[in-house]
Amino acid sequence: MTTTVAPAAEAPATPRPRRAGRGRRPTLTLYTGLVLAWLLLPIAVMILFGFNDTHSKVNFTWQGFTLTWYEHLFAIPNLTSALVNSLTIALVVAVVATLLGTPIGMALGRYRFRGKGSVDLLMFAAIAAPEIALGAALLSLFIVMGVPRGYWTIVIAHVAFCIPYVAITVRARMVGHDPTLEEAARDLGAGPWTAFRLVTLPMLLPGVASGALLCFALSVDDYVITSFNAGRTVTFPLWVYSASRTGVPPQVNVMGTLIFVGGLIIAGSNVLFSRRRAS
């Protein structure tokens, strides 16, 4: 007796799932491009007018291409001294704020202690507070203490509002740090300082570098807090604002371009260094 087996019914073809948001991709791409263009347009205008062959104080009309302003970048002594003040202040602030903020970030990311919530609140409050409030508060402090305003009061003011940025950046890096690596180094005979220098610090270095760069950038372009505590010291933003009433010279655009390019180079180097360490 021959038995026949009925062929199994073929399963219906399952339609391939459509990728979520596939139809919206052109819209999102266009939206992203418009936002980036809006962000980069002022920078592009600044870079372009650094090459403007203008012969007046008003640098708002394109009159031709020239490299004259790059050749005579330091032709205005007051502007040059203001730029030097901004760069040296930003460098000092980045170093001091990093040294003071890094231990705070490490403590917030590693330990639980009484008052930790209050410290967190204080860090975020310092970032969220309006600059005019911080500037007025620091001005009142210097007046009450009888401290003459000038170069070092600007440094103190900038360090005060930059520390929270370093602390929060290092804290975010510290949360992802594996403490067993440091414990293993201690088990292998490394002392506390050696374990910190060879294990903990390299792990935190990207966060520390990011916080330092952020402090440098915030200090260079700060105007509001600086105007309250500068005294007779003139920084680059203060000089540009005072010159805007009569006309901003092309050297300002050139200096702004060089600062922007320098920041890109430093930030790109930091990203490449972090990726190389991760690989």
From TrEMBL:
Domain ABC transmembrane type-1: 83-270
Domain of life: Bacteria
GO cellular component, one term: plasma membrane
Keyword Secreted belongs to the record: no
Key words, A-Z: Cell membrane, Membrane, Transmembrane, Transmembrane helix, Transport
Localization per record: Cell membrane
UniProt record, GO biological process: transmembrane transport
Biased composition (Low complexity): 1-13
Family: Belongs to the binding-protein-dependent transport system permease family. CysTW subfamily.
Name this polypeptide is given: Polyamine ABC-transporter integral membrane protein
Native organism: Streptomyces sparsogenes DSM 40356
